[in-house]
Every structure is written in structure tokens, then in C-alpha cells.
Amino acid sequence: MPNTLDTNAPDRLAATLALDEPVGRVRLVSPGRARALDALGIRTVRDLATHFPRRYIDLSRKATVAAARIGEQCTIEGTVHEIKLKRPKPRLSLVEVSLVDSTGLLMVTCFRQPWLMDQVRAGMRIAVAGKLEFNFGFKRMTNPYLEVLDGEGAAEGMIIPVHPACEKISAAWMRRLVGNALGATAGLYDPLPLELRAKYRLMSRSAALACIHFPHAMDEVAEARRRLVYEELLLLELMLMRESRERSDGRVAVRHVTDGQHVAALAAAVPFQLTDEQVRAKDDILASLAAPQTANHLLLGDVGTGKTVVAAFALAAAADTGTQALLMAPT
């Protein structure tokens, strides 16, 4: 996939959507589907393009009915022999599917999913993924993930992405909508320059989105996630650097005295030896206070690890410099 807009392709340019446009601009997203997506927190093209799968079903690792082990999670592919809607109680519905392969019969029970009667029919190929049980003489699955392998919207390839869905938008439809969003945004630029991607062996953003949504192998998912996580952390770091620069606003901060009498007296008065981690944290904070830039530190540690004594050295440096300091202790 290209990483920059092709200005010589006006038709494709016109069809390219900006990431912050309403999700209703994506092909096949009707007003009703837009409302259903909104309930999932998906309101923009960006939201849909980054609506990542919660898991994957690898059909290359599927088991047969006969070979599948009781009590284990597995994926079984077969043909629907029969499907029935039952109502054992007035407000309880269940769909019972008889799934057969060349080795045997699997009974699949799906509670409170009556819409499956409109999606699954006898003779269809489906895959189910869940925990295998044995009851009443048959191997069974209860409320497994069910994927139709025939017809419109069927998954392609051996790895099926399972996107978070809802009653009004099935997993298959969600997959189609995500694919349309990716197709409509493939021409947008990549925020990571080619030199940086080459240095760290990162795939392009468009390739990462394609691989995390529609992988051909699970290795692609790991590489796609590595690229997207790198971008997220890099942008966060750049944002923090910009905020730090804006806070300083060209002003020179007070350079604190970090080797004065109060700091020395505190070091002598501490009734225990500081740990290596405490010493490093203290030295880092004092070095920042001595610099002409505004200091900004967040000290993290479990209860009892000695954060307060480290903070006390900053107070002592303020006292030696003649500036004010405040210690808030909510506990």
C-alpha cells in the first residue's frame, strides 16, 4: 500500500477519507449502522480503522470433532446439518446447531442469539471456537464464537479476525466496514519517515493496519502491533517534549543550590543507607533543580519504598536556594 497521496490519481484522491471525518462517510455505513457504531464508541473514520480485533481464529490449527479434546479450547470447522430455535422459558431463547465433519457430530448451543436463525442455514460451512464439553452423549460447545465461512461477508484466508461487534452489526459486517475504512484511508501519509522505519525495521502505517486487521500469519500481527505501539509512544514523547518547551516559554528557571548545608544536613541525618534506586532518583532530581530549565519529575514507587525521603532532598535544595517548597502528604 502507498504511504503518500498520489496527486496524479484524482479519482482515488477524491475517494480518500480524512481520519477525523464522520464514520457515516465510509462505504456501507448506513445511518442505522452509524448509530450502532456510535454505541460502540466508533464515531470517526479513525475510530473504525483502529477498531482492532480482540482475538483471532486460526483455521490452520483447527481440530476435527473426533480429535478435539474435552475441556480444552479449540476451533472446529464443519457443515451445518440442522439448526433450531428453542424457547425453554418465555424470556429465554436458544439456537441449537448440529455441526458435522468427516469424523463426527458436534452440538452447538447459543443462548439469546435468535438472529443466528437469519445468518446460519443448513448446508452452510461454519467454524466455531470455544471450550469443548461432553454432555448427554455428544461433544458440545456453549456460546462459542461462530463464523460463517460461506456467502457474503465470509472471511478470507486461514486467520479470521474477531472484531468487537454488537447485535445490530455482526462480526462479519464489522470486518467489511473496517476493510472499507482501511481502503478509504490507504492514501494518507505515514507520520514516521522512511529513514526511521528502516532503522527500526518498522512496517508502514497502512501495512500495519492491514496486517493487524487481516493478517495472513500471526507473525504479522506481532509486527503490526510493534509498529503501532512505537508510533503511539513516539507521539506521546513528542507531545510531552512540546508541553515542556511551552512551559519554559524561553524563561530561565532558578538554578537551585544542591550542595548546600541543608542538603548536607539531611544526608547526615537520615538514619539508614539509601538504596541504589533512591540515590539515582535523588541525584536525577537535584541535577534537574540545578539546571537552568524548569524541573518536572514524577517519582513512582510502592508503599514503603522511600519516596518521601527522596522528595525531602528537593525541599532541602529549595531551602538552601532561598525559594519556597511545599510537601503534600495526603496519607
From TrEMBL:
One of its GO terms (biological process) is DNA repair. GO terms for molecular function: DNA helicase activity; hydrolase activity. It comes from the Bacteria. SUPFAM superfamilies: Nucleic acid-binding proteins, P-loop containing nucleoside triphosphate hydrolases. Transmembrane segments: none annotated. Residues 27-182 form the RecG wedge domain. Keywords: ATP-binding, Helicase, Hydrolase, Nucleotide-binding. Pfam families: RecG_wedge (PF17191). PANTHER family: ATP-DEPENDENT DNA HELICASE HOMOLOG RECG, CHLOROPLASTIC. This is ATP-dependent DNA helicase RecG.
